[in-house]
Amino acid sequence: xxxxxxxxxxxxxxxxxxxxxxxxxxxxxxxxxxxxxxxxxxxxxxxxxxxxxxxxxxxxxxxxxxxxxxxxxxxxxxxxxxxxxxxxxxxxxxxxxxxxxxxxxxxxxxxxxxxxxxxxxxxxxxxxxxxxxxxxxxxxxxxxxxxxxxxxxxxxxxxxxxxxx
Length: 165
Fold this sequence. Notes:
This protein is α/β, with parallel strands linked by helices. Helices cover 28% and strands 26% of the residues. The strands form three sheets. Strands 5-4-3-8-9 form a five-stranded mixed beta sheet. Strands 1-2 form a two-stranded antiparallel sheet. The longest helix is centred in the first third of the chain and has 13 residues.
């Protein structure tokens, strides 16, 4: 059994440098001054992951100036196909070997249909402008989740962002 690294609100979010579906390398440290929503999901083109991506897509305008990233171990090529298929307005990051997921505690033992296995634990992290965790959601249930995240990073973020500009 792999122990899950538990991150807590207020901690500095682990930095990363990962290749995205847009062909660019994205670093968390380069996004200081902006809120970031980092959601980990198991796999492109599966029913639950498709629903979650569509929920974030459909609410993306309500996230104001926040940056949304979806993260899974799938390849960049898989992410590009998934983004194009669903018309996602945000970048998906490739996390080969689930190294970032492990650092965030989004990889570990899970039970599906009564069988234990190791894999991605659907999780979302909201990172504030200073690079600290503002919210941590582990073992996410998809239904209603985007609304939970919006309660932390909502439409008022656009107003807050423009007040600091």
